[in-house]
## 1
Amino acid sequence: MALVVQKYGGTSVGTTERIRAVASKIICYRKKGHDLVIVVSAMSGETNRLIGLANEISRQPVAREYDVLVSTGEQVTIALLSMALQECGQAARSYTGGQVRILTDDVHSKARIRNIDSSAIKRDLAAGRVTVIAGFQGVDENGNVTTLGRGGSDTTAVALAAALEADECQIFTDVDGVYTTDPRVVPEARRLSRITFEEMLEMASLGSRILQSRAVEFAGKYNVPLRVLSSFEEGEGTLISYEEAGMEQPKISGIAFNRDEAKLTIAGVPDHPGVAYRILGPIANDNLEVDMIVQNVGQDDMTDFTFTVHRNNYDKARQVLRRVATDLGAREVTGDPKIVKVSIVGVGMRSHAGIASGMFESLANEGINIQMISTSEIKISVVIDEKYLELAVRALHEKFELEQE
Ligand code: ASP
Ligand code: MG
């Protein structure tokens, strides 16, 4: 008998009908003999509705009260799902984060889980009850309600799976797994049966918004096998786990892209120690997250700097950079908010040569100009004009034969 933590996302519990369907699914799993701990999100749209209410009252709600409010969505779902299970004759019990005692730090709206008291859950499991736990929330040391950041129910599920040493953590969502790339861009995109934690982290942070990145990180750290599955269709989904020794890895597992990027260049700055810090320090101080950074080889004691930021932060970052440019006596600040990042990801890259040149060749064949390049051990990213995004992703998908198993 396996212990499985299952998480059902907002669309999976979006109506009472769907909640009933989830209850039947859970009962089927129970019949296979599994012990089940269920984590749920708020019904779809509910968290946004609550945030909207807060904003009607206050432009900047006090963080403590904001968390008291936005955590209520999940409380509705745990009660409804427990009722649905009980209606079908399955003993069940709901818990808020505070009732379990999911202890977090006190950073409201993006709290981190510190400790989970699993004793009540274990008692329920031993008594044959299914436990239904509110995702996305916890309490700090003083009993204040905290929330874990948008999409945080994934992290709740993984943390519970780690605490309970569950055999698997299953994330039920509206897609049936992790794909080689977004099927809306490449219809031939294929569901991956397996992917490693490292690859998934790259895919998630590069814009394949299936799982909260923090959940993947957590799962990797505690070695919790994570499976993404559809709540609406039968299937094996995608298993995210560690690389298995001796298993042949494909060169490339997937192609991720991010449409929300913008790039900024500060040209003609002194090529001296401390200049990178004087440029990027003020950007960081304004909490503007920087992604790729490129510094050119200096010439005549001068150099250029280019970096990318989230498109929403473009104007703000440009303002900061203009001030820096004046201080440093830089030649000019230029930028382009219409760029995208496309990345090929795969642990197989480590043991195969020529992946980067293959990528550049296929972009060249399409006449796509590469504006920036960055690499890590398991990914190669390029920045290109946004109008070539679809073309680039399709060309790369074909080049690396991702449609084939
Ligand atoms: N309901 C929360 C959100 O929408 C948490 C979650 O769904 O994971 O972000
Ligand atoms: Mg989600």
Note: Residues 255-399 form a domain with the VC0802-like fold (CATH 3.30.2130.10).
## 2
Amino acid sequence: MPRTLDPELRRALAARIRYYNEMGIYDFYRQPPSGRAGDVPIAVDEPEIAVSTNRPESGEEMSSWKAAAVAMPAIEENIFDAIAPKPEQSVSDPVKALKIIREDLGDCTRCVLHKQGRKQIVFGVGNPAAELMFVGEGPGADEDAQGEPFVGRAGQLLNNMIKAMGIEREQVYIANIVKCRPPGNRTPERDECATCSPFLMRQIAVIKPKVVVALGAVAAKTLLAMSASMMQLRGRFYDFRPVGVRSNDPNWDGCKLAVTYHPAFLLRDPRQKGEAWKDLQMVMKELGMKAPSGRWSFVVRR
Ligand code: URA
């Protein structure tokens, strides 16, 4: 008789499997509870889990992450860990709740970035009850020095994008997928994103925005747990629920997520600013916002 999974557990398991698929991993094995290393692995074939483990079509964009078969003896424990109530969930004040998450993060040494020259952890900044959240990739040199996301050149452009929407930086919340600067501003590795993003998921569940804007491919792919080109990802809303955490607000069951270009990319290719503006207009419409009259200050230099 098929076993019925708790819906939350099923969701967490589906997200985990999607995550492994994204890394190019499609073959899963489970050790029996009494299993020892070396036991014959059992294929996971729960019929009630609606997750495709088919390999992607050739030509579909997949990252350079290698295909491999992995044994997942600890998957059930991991999932229970992932959906265990978080300490901030019993706290209604978002400022206090964010503080709890920050304290939980501590002087983080969970991934290699802590020993690759980071000066400090860049947690996130802004309105703890923001309707709109921006999520970037990871701190650069300026952010690492100042402890605040998007304070360098890309940050100035992001500020202008926010202003063009008719709001102030202080009204939104800004964070990154990874909270420590990758050396030389390299793209964060998949495992670094996976290690750090649960803290971002918790921040999102506390802030309970109406819309999250993913800035660039790393943010989009990590938040959506899918791999596609920016062209494919932009131009629509996704239903987004932070993975592995529940909000303490029964009325908040996730939000919309939109993808746009990273401001650093727009600095390199300003011709794409018009496209980014279209993305922001879509967000503004969703939030019932009206752009101030006049030219878009981040698109047209005055
Ligand atoms: N780029 C990012 O992705 N995040 C920052 O905070 C700064 C630059």
Note: The chain has ten helices and nine strands.
